[in-house]
Amino acid sequence: MRKAVTNNSWLFISLLVVCFILSQTKPMGGEGAIFRRAGENIVINGGFELEENGIPIGWSIPQNISSLDPTVARSGKLSLKYARTDKNDYRLVIQQIPCIPGKVYEASVWVKGENIKDGDPWDQGAGFCIEWADENGKWLGGVYPPCLVGTFDWQKISAIVRIPKEARRVNIVLYLRRNNTGTAWFDDVEVVQLIPPLASLKMISPAYRGFLLTPTKGRKISAKVSINREEHDLIGNPLQITSELIDAEGNCLSKTEKVLQGDEKETILYLVAPDLKPGEYRYVCRIRSDEKELGKLEEKINVVRQVEARVYVDEKQRLIVDGRPFFPIGLYLGPTEEEHLARISEAGFNTILCYGYGVGKDPEAYLEKARKYGLKVIYSVKDFYEGTKYFPKMGKSGLELARDYVMKFRDHPALLAWYINDELPITFIPRLTEMYELIKSLDPNHPQFQVLYQIPDLELYYNCTDIIGVDPYPIPSRPIDMVSDWTSSAVRAMHNAKPVWVVPQIFDWSVYREKGEPRDPTLQEKKNMFYQALIHGAKGLIAYSYFDLFRTTGGKKAPKELFEKRWKEVCEIVAEINKLVPPLLEGEDVPQLQGVLEKGKVHVRGITHENKLYILIANTSSDSLHLTLSLPDKGWKSARRLDGRKEEVKNGQLVLQLQPLEATTYILSK
Which end of the chain has less Cβ packing within 10 Å, N or C? Predict the structure, then answer.
């Protein structure tokens, strides 16, 4: 869940800005898989040792609140002191740095603090950011690592950053966040270019943990290979990419080759599997140039008659629970008393995700209450990463904590999945991979789930999750079809191979802001967002959030009447979604639906199930729209909406008049 931050032109920190951070991703089984540093520090005078008339050379510093300090230094003789007593005196320390667009850099700053504080818990601390602009100085984006608060000795803040190709000016900025007061010292500022690994490999089929079901003869095994040509001086060089399926004795059972021409950077390779016996096999990808092997990537293939796990993802990206397809309709929640769980279950939800569990009080009782009310639990270990804001200080590492909780609850019948990441940036991918591999080894019976808003970077998380989630929260400041955009982007990033779950917005953004007018999404907006997610391929819905329904602007307690109104609307939507679960789980998509619009935007999905055609529609415009749908089969004779209203089908066409933001389902019969 992203927290609101204040706007400020060049240092505007958007809630929905997508940071182009590139991780230290290690392709599974790859060689030379971590970034290596290339070149020198591109920051001028990063240690503040060079000065002219008391001003550090290379830096633009605000007078009166910043100065060189000969009494405090991490290294050398000087540091930069930044002291703010007036919270409104929001000035910055800046240096323009010669970054190359499209390249990757590691940026770091050492910070020491004294009494740094602010009343807003979501916008505190001293630290740094990297920002970029176009040739006219227009702000385009930035990366904003977590800042440090309070009184503390020297600590290092770092981030790995990909500079977007459209950037023409890049600044490193040292600062106290808006409305903060206190004193910070900065030293040893460094930005160094990194060279990424030669290649990465992503298994597309089989996608879920390498499970390939028998019989295998004639089935396709596919994988995506991506090459970092520029960073490895391979521009213009043809590359031979070979994939092989190898058995336990080292025999090659199937092989395919492809040549990437000089400017091609990625490809999808297909192998045709022979008749394989159950057992473990290796998928090996080799990269050659002029017959010289440059690298090798490898994944495991597990051939099985059936997946034995209690909960797993099948080839249709459905969750299978105790042998049956399951569509999660869930809520993020805070309170876990029986009153709340009973209310949630009665409304038709089947899944809950509580941030407090984790290390909350009496987790056994929490799981047992969930089971009592027929609710499945996505158990959160999202905070088990040292250095993150809510890391539990219990004398153990994050991996040790994860091991304890996984071993304790992996056999509980209420457990659905493990929640391993809530919006952590790509710099965490090495640690997310460690967590993913640990939990997978300890609990092969449950998948792992994470939620992100870093849309351009979703594919980089492919190898460290089983299920990806996105959390578009557009109301009131963004177009409502942001939900469609994010869902479709996630499906593409997962290559339509791993499931995408969506976190629809049911909360008022003003809950997270000290000031501002309350603005709940309307019933029509909420329903529209749920529908958009389903139309564009969501395999689960976990709404955010139940606890915010009890709050209003600034986090204050909402009147009972307001909660009841909100909850009634949510229940109405969930009741309708539950009616769609059978076709969503068991139906077949109809890609041939074609629509002619008078104007505006309409999103449509067709599903056939039990001799009926379900057409899900969401009008994301603020206009009434006239839509004519040409049906793939002229045998459909009648149509009705879920609310019972009938529509006429003529000559294989369904003609509709859609209200602004209308979202509904039409059921057609022959």
Answer: C
